[in-house]
Amino acid sequence: MVIALVSVLVCAALIAALAVQSHRTLSRLRSDADAAFTDLAAELRSRHELVPRVLASTERYLGSARYEASNVATARHAARTATIGRRGLLRQARAENALSQALADIFRLVSEDPAGATDPTVTCVRAQVVDLADRVDSSVLRYNTAASRYMAKRGRSPFALMTSIFGFAPRETFVLEA
User: Fold this and answer.
1) What sign does the dihedral 20-26-28-34 (CA atoms) show?
2) Considering the domain 26-166 in this protein, what is its CATH number?
3) Mean pLDDT along residues 53-65
4) For residue 121, how far is the Cα from the chain centroid?
5) Distance, CA of 106 to CA of 102 (rounded, Å)
6) 89-112 vs 2-58: helix axis angle to the nearest 10?
7) How high is the mean pLDDT of the chain?
8) 58, 70, 111, 168 - which has most CB atoms within 10 Å?
């Protein structure tokens, strides 16, 4: 009788320890994904803030292609107003991809003008855009890695039980086009 009671208590303690460890692991992985997402959102905001400088430095070289500047402004607005949150990642990624394409188009047009291609202000702003794009790519990679680790662990036993009990919500990946 005593041995049975001790066995039940030991099993209960092991199950409780496993549950606590599973909860801690999922909490840590979720926190890592959330922190990486916060870093990504900050890099995206920095890129949005750089767009007015891009437009100001390139406007005199656009000539008849002024619609490209309005495309960049429209893409920036769409990227800034897209849902920045875990549930709106697909829409946010699409808006960011459109902004990337609009920026590439405007720099392509400016580089066709010999004066624009050699303008130090344009060159400096282009370097900032490229640097920021690299930082955004790095942040996307960090976030996607953290989200993938969290999602992989979330689906495995005994973590799947903790997910259903404590409501560990899924995290989507953020896909930027190259």
Assistant:
1) negative
2) 1.20.1440.20
3) 85
4) 29
5) 6
6) 30
7) 89
8) 58
Per-residue pLDDT, 155: 85
Cα Rg of the chain, angstroms: 24
C-alpha–C-alpha distance, residues 77 and 67, integer Å: 15
Residue 152 pLDDT class (50, 70, 90 cuts): very high
The answer to whether 25 and 158 have CB atoms below 8 angstroms apart is no
User: Residue 120: exposed, middle, or buried by beta-carbon count in 10 A (0-12, 13-18, 19+)?
Assistant: exposed
Cβ atoms of 26 and 154 within 8 Å: the answer is yes
Is the pLDDT assigned to residue 156 strictly greater than 90?
A: no
Q: Where do we find the tokens 């808006």? A: 95
- Is the predicted pLDDT of residue 125 greater than 90, yes or no? yes
The angle formed by the CA atoms of residues 140, 169 and 36, to the nearest 5 degrees, is: 25
Domain ranges in the chain?
Answer: 26-166
Query: How much is the pLDDT for 76?
Result: 92
What pTM did the predictor assign? 0.86
